Amino acid sequence: MDHLEQDGTRPDVQPDWRVHGVHVVRAAELDNNTAQTLGMNRAAAITAARQGAQLLWAGTVDIHAGAATGAHHHGPVESVIYVVRGTARMRWGSRLEFIAEAGPGDFIHVPPFVPHQEINASSDETLSCVLVRSGQDPVVVNLDDIEIESSPQSIEWVDDLHRPSPQADS
Questions:
Q1: What is the set of domains in the chain, with CATH numbers?
Q2: Residue numbers in the chain where pLDDT is lower than 50
Q3: What per-residue confidence (pLDDT) applies to 23?
């Protein structure tokens, strides 16, 4: 019987790095055939089916000027959104009662099962983001019957390392 390493590989077999190595996905190769939510366009870049990714999914999301997505969550999957262009206004909570904004260069973390809504804060510019998820399943649970809070509470990230901005003290 052949000896296997802890990761399941055989020590005497060198992987074919040409096939099982780095993959570059060109912008023109993004796949729009992925789960969608009203108000946005998702396009997959890195997936199990396309590149053999095992633990994550990555792609882009564009939200049209002035548009807001429907309320939704992604089940047990965590998401990280990186804002490339525009201003993202995020609402979240059981009634979308919390709100925060993120601009170019900012990251947004969406934990599993958190009901949320992405809003393009600009009425004349597309909001463009990079999206990375912790799993391969294209879980999108659209929440069509959620009762939305009319006056959301603005949230600023504050902890021992991140202090409130000066305007938050007013």
A1: 43-154 (2.60.120.10)
A2: 1, 168-170
A3: 79
